[in-house]
Amino acid sequence: MAFEDREDRVVLTDEEGGEHPFRVIDVIELEGKIYAILLPDAGDVEEAGVEEAVIFRVEEDENGEEVLYDIEDDDEWERVAEAYSHMAEEE
């Protein structure tokens, strides 16, 4: 997937159509899936209501475009968060 090659910023649109800029702080592969670790831009932390990194699974849609999906499975989220934590500790 090309997500790793993109610029380090993305804009996410919430359910009300509001746009929120995020920095891509890392992209990891785990169990054959790609995950993006995002952090809200400094000016958007209060507005977005997110104060820490968020994790999304990166998948391709039917048009071949990469899309970020919420991780709804708690076990999957924990595995990714733990893998990222271990990677961050090693750096």
UniProtKB/TrEMBL annotation:
InterPro entries according to UniProt: UPF0473 (IPR009711)
Superkingdom to which the source organism belongs: Bacteria
Pfam families in alphabetical order: DUF1292
Family label: Belongs to the UPF0473 family.
The protein's name in its UniProt record: UPF0473 protein Btus_1112
Organism whose genome encodes this protein: Kyrpidia tusciae (strain DSM 2912 / NBRC 15312 / T2)
